Amino acid sequence: MSLITSQSNSSIFNALSALFGRGRCMSPPKDDEPFSPLFLTLSALFALVCYSCIHYLKPRRGSPPGPLGLPFVGYLPFLDQELHTYFALLARTYGPVLKLTLGRKVWIVISSPSTAREVLKDHDLTFANRNVPVAAREMTYGGSEIVTASYGPKWRMLRKICVLKMLSRTTLDSMYGLRRREVRESIQYLYKRCGSPVNVGEEMFLAAYNVITSMLWAGTVKGDERDRLGVEFKNAVGEFTELVGRPNISDFYPGLAWFDLQGIQKRVKVLAGKFDRIFEAVLSQRLGNDKEGGQATVEESKRSPEKKKDFLKFLLELKDGEDGKTPLTLIEIKALLMNMVLNGTETSSNTIEFIMAEMLNKPHTLRKAQQELDTVVGKDNVVEESHISKLPYLHAVVKESLRLHPPAPVLVPHCPSDDTLISGFRIQKGSMVYINVWAIHRDPTIWENPDEFDPERFMNSNVDYSGNHFSYLPFGSGRRMCAGIAMAERMVMYSLATILHSFDWELPKGEKLDLSEQFGIVMKKKVPLIAIPTPRLFDPALYK
Ligand code: HEM
């Protein structure tokens, strides 16, 4: 890849030319008009360019190194859409702390375990803020949700609700029935499609979506609606995570945000409207039902005990201030629902899609995982969550895939609340700090054959998801690390174990496997994985 790429942000170029206009033909000055308006304009422009060259390109004392850009726009025209690989390439020249000036913004890229440790552990508190892209603001009810909330009392309250109540191990255990029902539904569905090609990512997305929404508000997508709504929802989530990850002129020149030159905010607004309508419908149905009389709801809860435990019921109780400590507004409830749906679906389903692709590429790993499942679960049984802790090889497979294809390859950017020294370099307050875990996970000085999918490297290893090993950070580390690790682990492991145990998988004849990645705030496979399942359990009743 060249440093200045052809692919680099054609949309940004278009937007810039829309802003400044195309060059016009200019006639040369006449001899008798030495100070023609044109001459004066050009002189003024020249002076301005000289000034801004000095202003923009002058290295600041103590600043991290980084490539020089152009006046006004900085490095913007040279930025590549695939930020994770591009940052890794730049780090080879400029080192593990590098700086990019883009319009009025400063980006810092961190690319080594020791510098990641400085940011996420030694200066965790200072870097616990977010610098929210304008596109994300459209989707997050003005920063009312956890991922984008500034570090402070509101974030603490939302995070506490998430980690200690909604996503705690006890709550998750109590919701196993819901997860089991949804995963069994997916198996039933795949059984009907046996022998035909299926889009693995779409199926896994739908399974994750059904698990999450049934935990949130006891809603699932079934029958004819399954394909249509699932695909629609997957596309909406995918489009959002891709748009938010895309460099946006509105972020680099806040004064221009109003013009939305790349049309990103407009597209995100449409998506936000779609999600909001779903949440509004769910909320008004629930509030309406509750108003219709407690008796009916209690009766209903008795008939299906999972219903009374869904998150929405729990959040509405908090809203009404039953414990008096955490009053929630309806907006915050909708924002929390948005959090769960956005964070919990694509990350998990993309992870499973990459794992399946890597295993199909190395069939011995697939066979080994199936053998382990046959020994632990047996071929006359179905997988239960209680089996998961007895599957060390499958755990190693998941860890290895998260190493090669971390769903959040540069984490969610952190933002220092004060000027801070990292490895002796001054990091300006307010900069966007990207931790390139993708590069750290493939660093040849840390990992042997880093580009190889080799689950064995995690067998008998103490590297885990805790964020204490700074060479392995798929869920981040410190205060802002992923709030849904327990849920992600269960969903990924349980769904993966079940589809591997229930079916053999192969590529359609003549189909080539493509493992390339596409950057987004959630990374995905560039080419969707299409594979054919065939049943491998003897008793058809095990697919019911
Ligand atoms: C394989 C699956 C997943 C991966 C790899 C993953 C990874 C991450 C990462 C890297 C971050 C940002 C950490 C940082 O900024 O330093 C994050 C944040 C977050 N994740 Fe996950 N995640 C996954 C699944 C989930 C699930 C299932 C949920 C909940 C349903 C969830 C909820 C969250 C929340 C709420 C945050 C924001 C935390 C904050 O800013 O305080 N994630 N995740």
TrEMBL record:
Keyword Iron: yes
InterPro entries: Cyt_P450 (IPR001128), Cyt_P450_CS (IPR017972), Cyt_P450_E_grp-I (IPR002401), Cyt_P450_sf (IPR036396)
Binding site for heme: 482
Necessary cofactors: heme
Alphabetized UniProt keyword annotations: Heme, Iron, Metal-binding, Monooxygenase, Oxidoreductase
Gene Ontology MF term list: heme binding; iron ion binding; oxidoreductase activity, acting on paired donors, with incorporation or reduction of molecular oxygen, NAD(P)H as one donor, and incorporation of one atom of oxygen
One matching Pfam family: p450
Family of this protein: Belongs to the cytochrome P450 family.
Protein name: Flavonoid 3'-monooxygenase CYP75B137-like
